[in-house]
Write a structure and sequence with these properties.
It comes from Streptomyces gossypii. By secondary structure, the chain is mostly helical. Helices cover about 75% and strands about 0% of the residues. It is globular and about 65 Å long.
Length: about 350
């Protein structure tokens, strides 16, 4: 009798779990709904505010297809820009969350790990030396460059004792990103015919967006979104550690490769159309963990929503603070993300997730 009672003692602390679980789910659902409402409000703000303010009546008319007045015409031009900002922000936020889950590295980010600069270098090289001019070609080239950069950084980060530690991956990514940035400059400087356009693109922004450009990149982004969201359960298993994940039947190498593929597709497609925008994939996943915890089934959708909100907000701020000129979103996100990066390094001690 004593043995039987002792064997059942560990179950006692878990008894209240059925009552706690619905409350936790409600909090997560409320966070998702709040994120949707915030994103909707920011999208309206993106249409209404910029180098000139537009009344909400003209915004609603423009959403209905009207462009008779000057305000309605201006709002109509801002619609594709807003849509592109939402898609690129969602892609970068989701890619950052997946990268952090794949590498178990709290510093993982498409910019910090050199993935964005790898995509940039591939596009610049293809344009300068191979005459690349097709928008679809830009996307495929950017994804190939992003994939090669990710593999290179991870390989370098695994060298030496201890394997791919978070600090080694961050240092390898930072060094690779700096090297790629120098190579981009070396490729562009002698080419005056492409230098001006690439300097603007290299900063990162969503200005000049059109539904044609968005339509070209949308299938790639959709594929990346699907792959990443379907990897949520696998990322939960990887968070337990490779040995334990394999013990519960997870094919670790396949799960890591598939999730990384989704992140690379998102990064490459986003960089091809908007340039290398940094720090969105770093800031957003950490914020999401504070709100919904570490379960990737909730973390990944929220990361996409908050990433879209952050980039949309950054675009609005960039248009408002420097009227009548604009500050590109890549600069605004860097101003927000750089202090956040320093805070993580100092407070989190660069521990693995």
């Amino acid at each position: 009798m004593t043995a039987v009672a002792t064997r059942h003692l560990p179950d006692a602390p878990d008894a209240p779990a059925p009552r706690r679980r619905p409350a936790r789910v409600r909090v997560r659902v409320l966070c998702l709904l709040a994120a949707i409402l915030v994103l909707a409000a920011l999208m309206l703000a993106s249409l209404a505010f910029g180098t000139r303010d537009i009344p909400l009546s003209d915004v609603w008319s423009a959403l209905g297809g009207a462009d008779a007045s000057l305000g309605q015409a201006a709002a109509s031009k801002r619609i594709p820009r807003t849509v592109l900002a939402v898609l690129i922000g969602a892609a970068l936020g989701l890619a950052g969350a997946v990268m952090q889950g794949v590498t178990r590295n709290p510093l993982a980010d498409p910019g910090i790990l050199g993935v964005n600069m790898g995509a940039s270098l591939a596009v610049v090289t293809a344009v300068a030396y191979f005459g690349l001019s097709s928008p679809i070609g830009y996307i495929w080239t950017a994804m190939a460059g992003a994939a090669l950069a990710a593999v290179f950084v991870y390989t370098v980060g695994t060298l030496g004792r201890g394997g791919a530690t978070p600090l080694k991956l961050a240092l390898a990514g930072a060094a690779t990103s700096a090297a790629f940035a120098s190579l981009v400059t070396a490729v562009v400087l002698p080419r005056n015919d492409i230098a001006g356009g690439f300097r603007l693109w290299q900063i990162g922004g969503v200005g000049g967006a059109s539904f044609e450009r968005t339509g070209q990149v949308a299938p790639f982004l959709a594929a990346g979104f699907v792959i990443c969201l379907l990897s949520a359960r696998s990322l939960n298993s990887l968070a337990l550690g490779d040995e334990l994940a394999a013990g519960i039947g997870e094919r670790v190498a396949v799960a890591r490769a598939v999730a990384a593929l989704g992140a690379v597709v998102l990064c490459g497609a986003a960089t091809a159309v908007a340039g290398p925008i940094g720090f969105v994939g770093l800031v957003v996943p950490h914020t999401c963990r504070l709100l919904v915890g570490v379960d990737h089934r909730w973390l990944l959708p929220l990361a996409a929503l908050l990433g879209a909100s952050l980039l949309t907000a950054a675009d609005v701020v960039g248009r408002v603070v420097a009227r009548p000129a604009e500050v590109d979103v890549g600069i605004v996100t860097a101003l927000v993300g750089a202090p956040f990066f320093i805070w993580i390094v100092r407070r989190q001690k660069v521990r693995a997730l």
